[in-house]
Amino acid sequence: MLNEVTVDRVYLARGVTDMRKSIDGLAVLVQEAFDLDPFSPNLFVFCNRKRDKMKILYWDKNGFWLYYRRLEKGQFQWPSDDNGSTPLIITRRQLNWLLDGLSLEQKHAHPVVTARTVI
Q: What is the pLDDT of residues 25-39, one digit of tens each?
């Protein structure tokens, strides 16, 4: 379902988020702490202190989606809160890496190529 979503950007909340927050609490966090529009076509991604739970907030036409992922083993490779409350903009590809338990920086991954012609 998440792969079928059309989004402009993916915003990652650095550091820790209280996972007791539901849709309204996360939307307020997006609006007030990040100074972003929670109704925009973006994904807003949050993680807990243990880094084993993740929530993704997304507005779709007439309501919010709240995706929730809990790991039974292991942790998400979550970035620290170095820049205060400024969210980190990542690509969909990087989000998939995070969901797979990988870090945001994959030095051995094939680079994204934009082809202009076919040989």
A: 999 999 998 999 999
